[in-house]
Design goal:
The complex is a heterodimer of chains A (700) and B (328).
Chain A lengths: L2 H11 L3 H9 L7 E4 L2 E5 L6 E4 L2 E4 L4 E5 L2 E4 L13 H8 L6 H4 L5 E2 L12 E6 L5 H8 L4 E4 L7 E4 L2 E6 L5 E6 L13 H13 L4 H4 L14 E6 L2 E5 L7 H6 L17 H4 L9 H10 L30 E3 L9 E6 L5 E2 L11 E6 L3 H9 L5 E2 L8 H6 L1 H4 L1 E8 L2 E6 L7 H7 L2 H10 L2 H7 L6 E2 L13 H4 L7 H10 L20 E7 L7 H13 L3 E7 L1 H9 L5 E6 L21 H6 L13 H14 L3 H18 L2 E6 L2 E7 L2 E2 L6 E2 L15 E2 L2
Parallel strand pairs in A: 7-17, 8-18, 20-29, 23-24, 23-25
Antiparallel strand pairs in A: 1-6, 2-5, 3-4, 9-10, 11-12, 12-14, 13-14, 15-16, 16-18, 19-27, 20-27, 21-25, 21-26, 22-26, 28-30
Chain B lengths: L1 H27 L5 H11 L6 H11 L5 H15 L4 E2 L4 E2 H36 L4 H15 L2 H16 L9 H4 L5 H38 L2 H8 L4 H7 L1 H5 L1 H5 L1 H10 L2 H7 L4 H10 L3 H29 L1 H4 L2
Antiparallel strand pairs in B: 1-2
Helix pairs in contact in B: 1-17, 5-6, 5-9, 5-14, 5-17, 6-9, 7-9, 7-15, 14-17, 15-16, 16-17
The chains are: A alpha+beta (700), B mainly alpha (328).
Chain lengths: 700, 328
């Protein structure tokens, strides 16, 4: 499949995430679901308001946005399986009386997972590599489970799917949600997962306490109008979450792990009470707690219940109950060289034929420090399936060795764009401040870059020249934005700069500013991968030189770069604009209005911390819009506001994209099956987890 | 002699105190602290960290206190309880993190060190004794190549050779299939298969410089009158060489033995990173990067202590080997 075909396909399949989320409420028990995708033309009604925001004047037009909204409806095709099978290693345990039969281990309505290729075979070890204890996401993104999860079938679109809940409902103003757990779902030690114990414990003993921040459960997405969320236990399998006002984005936040008690990683708002009570002063004796503090080598009793501590974190303590497909056998703290996980006998998903998942017995993670070592393992076929830590730049190496390593190279799309961030807040030099704040400068900057050449030379033609905007496959993908000022047109760039009054040049061909100084701008970037390759910056500097702008490259250590950000002394910066699949989950840079410094902190903390931004700075406008998006219960209005925020960013071009949508490479052994291709790799979609790895298997 | 040693030990104590202060300050010099780095990584993985949580963590780690208070807490823990503080990144006590890695590190670097000496000293002697012979040219050539090739590059090349021509699993200390098993003969053999790359890489650089030093020192000695006198008295050439000039030529070598001790702990850092060896060097590197100050500080303190101890040992060795130094 060529890139263009996929692109066309995904373009057709784009839809609004929240739309699906709401559509999903209407859905009763999970059966085999098919999607009907009618095309719906939505005319965006945009209020025509004139806004004076900073330097730019924003004039809204009525835009016609075409979006397809998939409506999930239940089609009674194949009936859900009624008899269940299990892995041989578990059948043996059942026979020996060490484990209850599979029917008793599964919930009443196990989630039926579709498979990408075929019904799998049981057994085998999935060999992966990781970077040790600091690389917890390398494991977590393989096993994470939420109440709802993102789904993306091969060739399909991204949608919100049911996971640990079989049903959920929202009140009309989206301030109240009811969640229906799958009945009979169990923790990996066999203890039933119940609202009456686990949600109650999470709410009463962790969240609704003074120590919520210490424990790490105080996510501000759950605080609306300064009121903390309230959890009501309706019955053993039902909870109601009530927010201090409309909170319409909850479903997509839940997909992204909202409410997780992060150490244990139950589904959001549930924590394994039967295990954690031993750490809680309310239930445990002081001398026992002190002994546990010593045992886990912690500093205080409070830390026993804190997220990601050796006591509570499944990655560091294999005894913590989980609901994952695989649970730890050892942990990276004591066995860094090889972290081993094995199947959870109480896993609550099956395939269409009633085989309990996962198919694979074990997942093992082998330690490496340096990417070259990983590459050697990959090309000699010692890794079964992996995307994490693999660079697109090594594509040729992997292709060359396919036969020798007996693997295939599956491609997903990286939802990211290498970008330049042009500061609107830099104010140490007023003349330069005005230049950076003139949208014509940013347009000229964008036009001066020869993206095709950068792609060919720096990225081996693997990327795609584009603006820093949502990627194909995203409901927010915008063809016009993707090409917005991306053509290589130095003449127009020169013209724009001339128009700005920068038409005088020094003897070296560098334009002179209004105060007669040469137009020199510092491009400061951190020396980490995310900041893009140094070659790219070299090219950019040459392109800018050609239109009379001198870029001074300054590579600094990351901590210094962060300090410079806080101090608002950055002029232009380079970073990868990622999270571009479902930007609504984590809009990040879309909310900054090009600003650096502690202004964002000031707005986020309501003035308690940080530095107050000027009254007319665009960062205020962007944050206001986002606050409105987050509080708007009506979907159509919300989408219009969101679109306004996106357009605000597009037109102002604070972030100038260069190349993006790199291939995300999954090196996969030829006998390792059910791995889909063409999906989107993005952090909020939980990376490789989107592939539905509980259905991966090794074909004999 | 005993007085000499005692005096040296007394001098070592204030040195250690100053070193501990300086290293603690230097670790804190870069902007930000462990939390800024930590929060940045959390943000990069899309985890929310709100101001309240940061405040809680700051208090937990004591990062809100002035630097001298932090230093006092740390150093008094070491002196009174032997407690090196807590590693923020590993969320556990520093000593447990360090000791875990130390054994393997010392095995590898120790073996390499012995290998280096065993190889370099005879070659150095020979190429000085047979100056401008074929052997000397070959040794010189290899020596310069060994000095010239950066360690990490050489490690990569050897990895490629092992992979492409011997079909061997590279990286780490064991092949995947032995990682889960306990010690066995096969596992030991497997370890040796992996050990040769780091040994050669680390060893080659060291061997090369040692050969050059040994050769130069010995050449200086060989033409001194006492050698000629000995030769005139009819002593056999080999005996003469080993008994007098070699012994003197070893002096600069002995005086650098002190540096070998800290090398045992933190040596071969780059090579360990490239080869993904679970050694102490990469741990120190990582601790410095993430500003995990108690771990990094304890490491630096440990290295300094070893350097001071090593210097002491080399002083004693020198005094023993060269009578001229004893009564200085």
């Amino acid at each position: 499949m060529t890139k263009i075909n996929r692109r066309d396909f995904l373009r057709g399949a784009a839809m609004t995430a929240a739309g699906v989320a709401l559509a999903a409420c209407a859905q009763p028990t999970p059966q085999v679901i098919e999607k009907e995708v009618p095309v719906e033309k939505i005319v965006k009604e945009t209020v025509v308001v004139e806004k004076e925001v900073a330097v730019e004047k924003i004039v809204k037009e009525t835009v016609l946005v075409e979006k397809q909204v998939p409506i999930e409806k239940v089609v009674t095709a194949t009936p859900p399986p009624t008899t269940y099978n299990e892995a041989p290693m578990l059948a043996e345990l059942v026979k020996a009386g060490k484990l209850p039969p599979v029917e008793d281990r599964l919930p009443e309505d196990p989630l039926v997972m579709p498979v990408a290729e075929e019904i799998g075979q049981y057994g085998g070890t999935w060999r992966r590599a990781y970077k040790g204890i600091s690389d917890r996401w390398g494991t977590e993104k393989i096993v994470v489970e939420n109440l709802l999860m993102w789904r993306m079938p091969e060739g399909g679109s991204i949608s919100v799917g049911l996971n640990a809940v079989s049903k959920w409902e929202a009140s009309p103003d989206a301030s109240e949600y009811t969640w229906y757990l799958r009945k009979g779902i169990k923790w990996s030690d066999g203890t039933p997962l119940l609202a009456s114990t686990d949600a109650k414990f999470w709410y009463e003993d962790l969240y609704n306490t003074d120590l919520a921040s210490t424990y790490g459960v105080s996510d501000t997405k759950m605080v609306i109008n300064e009121k903390k969320m309230v959890v009501d236990v309706v019955d053993d399998f039902t909870i109601k979450t009530t927010f201090g006002g409309p909170n319409p984005l909850v479903p997509i936040f839940v997909c992204n792990g909202l409410g997780h008690y992060m150490g244990s990683r139950g589904p959001g708002w549930f924590a394994p009470a039967h295990y954690l009570k031993q750490f809680h002063p309310k239930y445990a004796k002081k001398e026992d707690l002190d002994a546990l503090v010593k045992q886990f080598d912690l500093a205080s009793v409070d830390e026993l219940l804190t997220t990601q501590k050796p006591s509570t974190f499944f990655f560091e303590n294999e005894n913590v109950p989980v609901i994952h497909a695989w649970k730890g056998v050892n942990n990276p703290r004591t066995s860094q060289d090889l972290y081993i996980t094995e199947r959870n006998p109480y896993y609550w998903k099956v395939d269409q034929e009633g085989n309990q998942l996962p198919y694979l017995d074990r997942v093992t993670y082998r330690f490496f420090d340096n990417t070259e070592t990983l590459n050697f393992w990959l090309i000699s076929g010692e890794i079964d399936c992996q995307n994490r830590h693999i660079a697109a730049a090594d594509y040729t190496l992997f292709k060359e060795n396919e036969a020798r390593g007996d693997y295939r190279t599956i491609l997903w799309v990286e939802a990211a764009t290498q970008s330049y961030f042009i500061s609107s807040s830099f104010d140490a030099d007023p003349v330069l401040h005005d230049i950076l704040n003139d949208v014509r400068f940013r347009q000229a900057f964008s036009l001066a870059i020869n993206r095709a050449e950068v792609n060919e030379i720096v990225f081996q033609g693997q990327y795609e020249p584009r603006q820093a905007c949502p990627v194909s496959g995203s409901p927010d993908w915008d063809a016009d934005w993707e090409q917005y000022y991306t053509e290589y047109d130095p003449d127009r760039a020169n013209q724009l700069l001339d128009e700005m009054g920068l038409d005088k040049k020094g003897s070296d061909g560098i334009r002179l500013r209004s105060d007669g100084k040469p137009l020199e701008i510092v491009l400061e970037y951190a020396t980490v991968n995310f900041a893009g390759p140094a070659d790219m910056h070299q090219f950019t500097a040459e392109y800018l030189q050609a239109v009379g702008v001198k870029l001074i490259l300054r590579a600094v250590e990351r901590s210094l770069w962060e300090k410079d950000q806080d101090d608002n002394v950055i002029q232009i910066d380079s970073w990868v604009r990622d999270r571009s699949a479902i930007p609504m989950v984590d809009p990040g840079a879309f909310l900054d209005g090009g600003a650096y410094g502690l202004w964002g902190t000031w707005l986020d903390t309501g003035g308690k911390d940080g530095v107050e931004p000027p009254q007319d700075h665009p960062i205020r406008y962007a944050r206001d819009l986002w606050a409105k998006v987050r509080a708007e219960g009506n979907e159509a209005k919300r989408n219009a506001l969101w679109q306004e925020l996106l357009d605000f960013n597009k037109e102002n071009l604070w972030v100038v994209g260069v190349c993006g949508e790199a291939p995300a490479i999954l090196i996969t052994k030829n006998n390792f099956r059910n791995v889909p291709s063409g999906l989107v790799q993005d952090d909020p979609l939980r990376g490789e987890r989107l592939g539905g790895n509980e259905t991966y298997f090794i074909k004999a | 002699m005993l007085r000499y040693i005692g005096r040296r030990i007394l001098v070592a104590i204030p040195t250690l105190i100053v070193v501990s202060m300086v290293s603690f300050v230097i670790i804190q010099l870069p902007p930000g602290d462990f939390l800024t780095a930590y929060v940045a990584t959390l943000r990069a993985t899309n985890e929310e960290v709100n101001a309240e949580q940061i405040a809680v963590l700051t208090e937990q780690y004591g990062l809100d206190q002035p630097i001298y208070v932090q230093y006092y807490k740390w150093i008094s823990g070491i002196i009174t309880r032997g407690d090196f503080g807590r590693s923020m990144e590993w969320k556990t006590s520093v000593s447990s993190v360090i000791w875990e890695r130390l054994g393997l590190t010392m095995v590898l670097t120790g073996a390499t060190l012995l290998f280096t000496w065993a190889l370099a000293i005879p070659i150095g002697i020979l190429s000085a004794a047979k100056q401008y012979s074929i052997f000397d040219y070959v040794a010189t050539f290899l020596g310069f190549v060994g000095l010239g090739i950066p360690n990490f590059l050489f490690a990569l090349i050897l990895m490629w050779i092992a992979y492409a021509y011997f079909g061997q699993s590279v990286g780490g200390l064991f092949s995947a299939e032995y990682l889960e098993q306990g010690w066995s003969w096969a596992k030991f053999v497997d370890m040796l298969k992996h050990l040769w790359i780091p040994m050669i890489v680390v060893g080659l650089g060291g061997t090369a410089s040692l050969i050059r030093t040994m050769r130069a020192n010995l050449l200086d000695e060989l033409h001194k009158p006492y050698v000629m006198t000995a030769r005139a008295k009819g002593i056999s050439e080999t005996r003469l060489l080993l008994k007098y000039p070699v012994r003197v030529a070893l002096n600069p070598f002995l005086s650098t033995v002190g540096w070998a001790l800290p090398q045992l702990v933190s040596g071969a850092t780059i090579v360990s990173v490239v080869l993904s060896l679970p050694m102490a060097g990469p741990l120190l590197l990582r601790a410095l990067q993430s500003q995990d100050m108690y771990l990094a500080g304890s490491f630096v303190l440990l290295l300094s202590a070893l350097t001071i101890l090593g210097t002491l040992i080399s002083d004693v060795l020198l005094a023993w080997a060269d009578p001229r130094i004893r009564f200085e």
